[in-house]
Amino acid sequence: MKILVTGGSGGMGEAIVRRLAKDGHTIIFTYHTHADRTRHIVEETGTKAIIFNMHDTASLKNLTALISKENFDGLVNNAASPIPSREFFTKIDPDQF
Fold first, then answer.
1. Of 14, 19, 44, 45, which one has the greatest count of Cβ atoms within 10 A?
2. CB of 41 within 8 A of CB of 63?
């Protein structure tokens, strides 16, 4: 299977990428930081990585183009954005979210 993993360069995301690759799946994963770590993951697992910033329109367009071009069988949506506080969701305007 060809699987897209978002947020695949750190912690849980890296573990997911490594396990799926070990199980024989073709993996493309996104990363935002940890470029050196990402390079090692790619070299060690034979996966492919693309930089992605969920707050950048151009980056989102690039990811959308990749998804349109590739024929993915699965998605692991692991990417996250830091939340400034627990009250964040109660105070944010739904249109901003």
1. 14
2. no
pLDDT tens digit sequence for 80-96: 766 655 565 566 666 66
Q: Which of 47, 50, 73, 49 is nearest to 61 (CA)?
A: 50
Helix (H) and strand (E) counts in the chain: 4, 4
Q: Are 10 and 33 in contact (CB under 8 A)?
A: yes
- For residues 50 and 8, the answer to whether their CB atoms sit within 8 Å is no
What is the identity of the amino acid at 55?
A: H
Q: 0.85 exceeded by the pTM? A: no
Per-residue pLDDT reduced to its tens digit, 51-73: 998 888 899 899 999 999 999 99
3-class DSSP state of 49: strand
